[in-house]
Design a protein that fits this description.
The chain is α+β, with helices and mostly antiparallel strands. It contains 16 helices and 21 strands. The strands form 5 sheets. Strands 1-9-8-6-5-10-4-3-13-14 form a 10-stranded mixed beta sheet. A hairpin with a 2-residue loop joins β13 and β14. α4 packs across α7. Keywords: ATP-binding, Chromatin regulator, Coiled coil, DNA damage, DNA repair, Endonuclease, Hydrolase, Nuclease, Nucleotide-binding, Nucleus, RNA-binding, RNA-mediated gene silencing. Belongs to the MORC ATPase protein family. It is found in: Nucleus.
């Protein structure tokens, strides 16, 4: 058991860091520095009052909705307030925290970011991550808890974590790469976050507390992001403060944390480390956002073992719906929209061996979409990447879902570095029956995900991948659709197999509509066009689509070849220019030699 003791000799650690990511001046964000300013802290509590004279009640009502929380202005006094200069600083306006978090349109995407951080800690020995709801004792409000037993963060690490744009995750296996996920995800879920972390680095054991409070920044009218942090050395039998400048500055950081966090005393803060162990991290997000109706965006009451998105869950719970709609809403492709347990079960492609995800005390059972497909087939695809990169074949598993006869669920589940980016991406047109019930799974590490990891960057590689997936669906449908009762494309009506139940829900094509028009007329007296179904005479449209895909792929190949040829021409022209330059230098040298030779002869 660790006991607290006031240190005789104050430990001073310089943790200021400089890197290529750090911007100079006031035009961009800079890393959080631990160097304290030698300013007085007298009257600091007065400086934390609302500089605009707005009551706490009205502020809370105005700012508790996430999409409205960016509408605030820094108080004029805050700009010249020197009482807070000694605290941790990141040279960014607080409004940037909110605008940056709007990259997460979906709250589950923000939760997934925090789960990714724990998964990345597997390489540091992490065996679990807990996601749970806790109650804040100050006001009995709900808060989100994320906790893992990874390597934790030392004082320098927690400052990098809470700075903007810094990332040390540059390996081929880690999911995080932009150094922005923690800030965007936490502020997207709630106004405030407090972090507790323990780590052992170079034989020194430390524990740190950091507070990123949007409420504190708004209500005090700050025009700069202030992040109070305190650190302790726990290497010995006693808990010793790590002092960077003065005892007064350390105490000032502690006072800010206690005033704006869910914990009212230093003892309560220290209690949060008791279940962390020798290393690990605990993140508590509080002052969770409300929806437009003034109710918490996340629902904790519908299911004691789940966290749900309230608006989507309410839509899904509508009682009087047709049977087919109810069946569709019970499928994974729909449940992942509102159920965190459903979404987390398919969030990672490969099942973990020594790692568990606990949601509200119950482990999440990982679900493999590919293992549950009927008539599955593995298709290999070699993306045309740059010349410098190593060519790697991408394997796509494709097949019919078990409910293909009744549900029109289709699309590709595309992962990147084991993490789901696009679930059930529908690449075929919505009207045609081709691809009905066909689902695919692949890991596309050759294209880059967007910052919120819910989509991919619209690059040429992405466009080529989409075209390839369309082609894969088309080829699979030609050879496997008859297994589900569909007519093979291009075959005559005499070879038509038994029609599955799903075709009752599709437009009926009769011999009278062989030209693509029904026997019904519109008010103008014109025949109405009908939708094409595989096996009907109008399948020429599908053949044209397939031919267009092939032509597109050939066009992309020609573009690639043209690009490579232009690069070769550029290199040859460069070599030619260098050769001409050397030739000119040699010619000049020869002329000089000749002149010297003539002078000697004279």
């Amino acid at each position: 058991m660790l006991h607290q003791k006031e240190p005789i000799n104050k430990v001073v650690v310089d943790i200021d860091s400089s890197s290529e990511d750090e911007a100079e001046g006031s035009n961009g964000p800079s890393k959080i520095s631990s160097h304290s300013r030698p300013n007085t802290v007298t009257g600091i509590s007065d400086s934390l009052k609302d500089t605009r004279g707005v009551s706490t009640v009205s502020l809370m009502a105005e700012f508790r909705s996430f999409w409205k929380a960016g509408n605030y202005e820094a108080g004029p006094e805050a700009k010249f307030n020197s009482n807070l200069d000694h605290l941790e600083h990141a040279r960014v306006h607080p409004k940037f925290l909110h605008s940056n978090a709007t990259s997460h349109k979906w709250a589950f995407g923000a939760i997934a970011e925090l789960m990714d951080n724990a998964v990345d800690e597997i390489q540091n020995g992490a065996t679990f991550v807990k996601v749970d709801k806790i109650n804040v004792m100050k006001d009995n409000s709900p808060a989100l808890l994320f906790q893992d037993d990874g390597g934790g963060m030392d004082p320098q690490g927690i400052r990098k974590c809470m700075s903007l744009g810094y990332s040390s995750k540059k390996t081929n296996t880690t999911i995080g790469q932009y150094g922005n996920g923690f800030k965007t995800s936490t502020i997207r879920l709630g106004a405030d976050v407090i972090v507790f972390s323990r780590a052992i680095c170079a034989g020194k054991a430390t524990q740190s507390v950091g507070l990123l409070s949007y409420t504190f920044l708004r209500k005090t009218g700050q025009d700069d992001v202030i992040v109070p942090m305190i650190d302790f050395d726990i290497s010995g039998n006693w808990v010793e403060k790590i002092i960077y400048s003065s005892e007064k500055d350390w105490s000032s950081n502690l006072n800010i944390i206690l005033e704006w966090s869910p914990f009212q005393s230093k003892e309560e803060l220290m209690e949060q480390f008791e279940d962390i162990g020798s290393h690990g991290t605990k993140v508590i997000i509080y002052n969770l956002w409300l929806n437009d109706e003034g109710i918490y965006e996340l629902s904790f009451d519908d299911d004691d073992e789940d966290i749900r998105l309230r608006d989507e869950a309410n839509l899904a719970s509508t009682t009087k719906v047709p049977k087919r709609v109810a069946e569709l809403r019970s499928h994974m492709s729909y449940r992942l929209r509102y159920s965190l347990r459903a979404y987390a079960s398919i969030l990672y492609l490969r099942k973990f061996t020594n790692f568990k995800i606990f949601l509200r005390g119950k482990p999440i059972e990982q679900y493999s979409i590919a293992d549950d497909l009927m008539y599955s087939k593995v298709v290999s695809y070699k993306p045309q990447t740059s010349e410098a990169s190593r060519e790697v074949a991408v394997e796509t598993t494709i097949g019919f879902i078990k409910e293909a006869s009744t549900l029109g669920v289709s699309g590709f589940n595309v992962y990147h570095k084991n993490r789901l980016i696009r679930p059930y991406w529908k690449v075929t047109s919505g009207g045609a029956s081709k691809g009905y019930g066909v689902v695919g799974v692949l890991e596309a590490n050759f294209i880059e995900p967007a910052h919120d990891k819910q989509d991919f960057e619209r690059s040429s590689l992405y466009i080529r991948l989409e075209a390839r997936l369309k082609y894969i669906v088309s080829e699979y449908w030609k050879t496997h659709c008859h297994l589900m009762g569909y007519t093979i494309p291009g075959s005559t009506s005499s070879t038509k197999t038994s029609t599955p139940a799903v075709n009752r829900h599709l437009p009926l094509v009769t011999p009278s509509s062989s030209l693509g028009f029904s026997s019904q007329k519109d008010p103008m007296g014109r025949y109405k066009p009908v939708q094409s179904i595989e096996g009907s005479p109008t399948t020429s449209v599908d053949l044209i689509c397939a031919e267009n895909i092939k032509l597109f792929m050939r066009c992309e190949a020609y573009k690639q070849a043209d690009s490579e040829l232009k690069e070769k021409i550029r290199k040859v022209e460069k070599e030619l220019a260098e050769t001409r330059e050397k030739c000119a230098e040699l010619s000049s040298y020869l002329k000089t030699k000749r002149k010297h030779h003539v002078v000697k002869l004279e």
